[in-house]
Amino acid sequence: MSTNGSTSDMTFPPDWHTGPDDSFHGKITKEGPFQPEKDRYHLYIGLFCPFAHRANLVRKLKQLDKYTGIDISIVKPYPKDEPDTPSKPGWRFNHKEESQYEGATEDKLFGYRYMNEVYFRADKSYKGKYTVPALWDKKLNTMVNNESAELLRDLQTAFDELLPKDVAEVTLYPKELQGEIDTVAGWMSDHLNTGVYKAGFAPNQEV
């Protein structure tokens, strides 16, 4: 399946992006279309978002910014939606037509104003949520993955062959602790990570 002109001759795994309502589930592998290469990928995040934070933490702890050139663009924490805009474009970047928010950045790849424009670049018919984190492939000009848990697992080992030996040996998901990590991660997602959004989008104090 392909979604834009630059990927028309590329074969993608069937579960990468099954349609406009689906998220993106690509993996960085030597055997697939998204191969581990330097200066090829870009990560979109929001500093307010626990889900995006953990993808960025892997990027820093595995030094992917230094050794693989994975840079980041950072959306502003507000406003997520415009009440008077039917399409509700979602998260915004620092843009010449926007107020500037300290800690956010411009869209370093395309100069877009809204995160939804990045999604529509990957799939012009996309109908899902315009979330962060999202990993972009600059070579194929499309979205690799926008599922935080999948990126968390993938990024910690996907580029090891490009890293110095001591950095590649750093593991954030040791086998002997994987069961415990999965249990804690599930609890954190339900009670802490999503709590940020429940509080942030609550219509009143009672909620």
TrEMBL record:
UniProt cross-references to InterPro entries, sorted A to Z: Glutathione_S-Trfase_N, GST_Omega/GSH, Thioredoxin-like_sf
Stretches the record annotates as Disordered: 1-27
Domain GST N-terminal: 48-157
Superkingdom as given in the UniProt entry: Eukaryota
Amino acid composition bias (Polar residues), ranges on this chain: 1-10
Basic and acidic residues bias (residue ranges): 18-27
Matches recorded under SUPFAM superfamilies: Thioredoxin-like (SSF52833)
Gene Ontology MF: a single term: glutathione transferase activity
Pfam families linked: GST_N_2
A GO CC term assigned to this protein in UniProt: cytoplasm
Protein name: GST N-terminal domain-containing protein
Native species: Friedmanniomyces endolithicus
